[in-house]
Specification:
With 277 residues, the chain is mainly beta. It has 1 helix and 18 strands. The chain has a 7-stranded mixed β-sheet with strand order 6-9-4-3-12-15-14, with no helix packed on it. A 5-stranded antiparallel β-sheet has the order 2-1-5-8-7, with no helix packed on it. Strands 10-11-16-13 form a 4-stranded antiparallel β-sheet, with no helix packed on it. β7 and β8 form a beta hairpin. The longest helix has 22 residues. The N terminus is likely disordered.
Amino acid sequence: MSRLARVGASVGLGIAIALTAIGPVARPMLAAATTLTIVTKTTYDVLPDENRVAVTAEITATNLRRDTATRHYYAEKAYLAVLPGTSNFQLKAPSGKPSVKVNSEGATGTVLLLQFGSQLGAGKSLAMTLTFDIEDPGGAPERPLRISPSLVAFQAWAFGSDGVAGSTVRVRLPAGYAPVIGRGPLSGPSTEPDGHLVFETEALPTPETFVADVFADRPGVHLPENRSTTVNGQTVLLMIRFWPDDPDWRIRVTDLLQRGLPALGAAIGIGWPSAQL
């Protein structure tokens, strides 16, 4: 999935100028902006007990224009595409009254309108902090997005203008999880004093193409449940181990074994080779 960041600027005499920058993987690529750039330092803080990932993007927006004797150039807003299904957006800055709202959303991403709350003059930079959540929607056990005490699965994107180096990504996982990282790359883990595992990048040359797949599970949290069924007249004991936060999986698998094993036994026509499964 590609991330699109659009940047809008306006000129002091009321002339509107449309600028466009880009972001990553698999979306249509547009011409990169050369007058307003965005670089970010993004942290993904995994909060399994709250079924969410708290995302903090420290944004530096820079207006590369230069004033002339007759014109004063300034930027007031930018469009930034973040992951689909995200929510609870907030934008803060040391001064002014910045704001953020959803401009559009779909299966491939959510486009945010960032209002700077002040005029970003030519040659100037503005620091802002964008926060939002990646929330586990619940539902089918095989869902691609999952944030729970037993399992974690989500994507981490970098955000920044197309072709502008410098954006970074950092992922924090609580202690006790066994992580697996796909794509990226993300280096690590290092361990913080409180036990959190940290994966991070160096400054990315092309943040618009960066995406990492983060998977983690917590060993030792499985609960046992004993059930039985009958195969060709023989009682078969079933011991099912399941994650406590996934009752749907337990119910589905238990039902499958209790109904499926007798049907298989009847079809095959031989006795069960063991008294326990």
